[in-house]
Amino acid sequence: TRVVYEDGEALIRTPLKELLLQLDEQVFWQVHRSVVVNHRCIASAVRVDEGQMHLTLRGRPDKLPVSRHFQ
Questions:
Q1: 32, 36, 51, 63 — which has fewest CB within 10 A?
Q2: Cα–Cα distance between 56 and 44 in angstroms, integer?
């Protein structure tokens, strides 16, 4: 699992399913089968078309996918 911080990133060997059990679900939202975000870091959520949405995080240029299930 890749964990991204404001000042870098790290790889951890904990499966995402296990990691989710340790995180506060009020703060950390799973938005895709492989993406979990701290909701306080979300800069915007953009609906691209009828079935697609992506998130951008504050201070990062990446666009993260949001699956239909988690929209």
A1: 51
A2: 5
Residue 27 contacts residue 16 (beta carbons within 8 Å): no
Contact between 10 and 1 under an 8 Å Cβ cutoff? The reply is no
Q: Which two tokens stand for residue 17?
A: 């399913």
Asked whether the whole model's pTM tops 0.90, one would answer: no
Cα(33)–Cα(23) distance, integer angstroms:
16
Helix (H) or strand (E) run with residue 16 in it: helix 16-22
pLDDT in single tens digits along all 71 residues of the chain: 777 777 777 888 888 899 999 999 999 999 998 888 999 999 999 998 888 899 999 988 889 999 988 88
Dihedral angle at the C-alpha atoms of 7, 34, 67, 55, nearest 10 degrees?
A: 0
